[in-house]
Amino acid sequence: MQSDIEKLHDLMQKHKKILLISGAGISTNSGIGDYRDKNGDWKRVQPVKHQGFMGSHQWRQRYWGRSQLGYPEFLRAQPNEGHHALARLEQQGRIFALITQNVDRLHQKAGQQNVIDLHGRLDQVICTACGKLESRDDIQLWLEAHNPSLQAAEFVPAPDGDADLEAEFSQIQVPGCSACDGILKPHVVFFGDSVPKPIVEQAYTWVEEADLVLVIGSSLMVYSSFRFVRKAHELSIPIAAINNGVTRADELFDMKIIGDCSDILRQLF
């Protein structure tokens, strides 16, 4: 392990335009769960899909009911050593940009500046009719005021502000847009939805500018992030990875370290 860390350190020293791609593995030490195991398989039932959320009031009741309980737990997460190490690297001019699959904004809380939130951000809510953005904190106050009985429910925190619980959701009040009463959804890319084109184009531009891509804590099982690693490979840009298990792009990496992301980053820097 130590030899691999030294090799990765040497590799990063040789490159001046390092692009990072991060996933859930960097936030697990902050108390935010991940979705996949070391084999890249689902640990749990897949999250709500875009089509289900948009097409079913019952799905929206289920989502907002669970989120009412899970979101406060999600908010308690703070950046860990890995987030802070990457922010320091940016401040030192060692890396120039970061693409994250995470919706927790922990990179930004640690001081990272040049970040693409590939899958959006959970601290905002968007109206699917008029596009108005609202604070998720404000929606939390609305949910708790309109669904007070749910606050006593026992639950287990789940990834990205979700909650595992057995409950009757048919009486859950669902928030609507304060401007047009349209359907509100978290400002994130649900499974089955697409990343907005301008964000994808910006990410591809960063890949083309990079002279090294470092993947941290992502299995890359979803195409939305895998495509950027594949593009780097097509451009003959070296790719390294730190992850606690298999990834979809293992055969494309020039080197890979298997282990805890935050611990390895702490040893690296």
Form type? elongated
CATH topological fold name of the largest domain: Rossmann fold
Strand order of the largest sheet: 3-2-1-9-10-11
Average pLDDT, rounded to a whole number, is 93
CATH architecture of the largest domain: 3-Layer(aba) Sandwich
Helical residues, percent: 25-40%
The total of helices stands at: 9
Q: What structural category do the secondary elements indicate?
A: alpha/beta
Order of helices and strands: HEHHHEHEEEHEEEHEHEEH
Strand portion: 15-25%
Instruction: Report the strand count.
Output: 11
Work out the radius of gyration: 19 Å
Largest sheet: 6 strands, parallel
Low-confidence stretches: none
For this structure, what is the CATH homologous superfamily of the largest domain?
TPP-binding domain
Number of domains: 2
How far do the termini sit from each other? 15 Å
CATH uppermost class of the largest domain: Alpha Beta
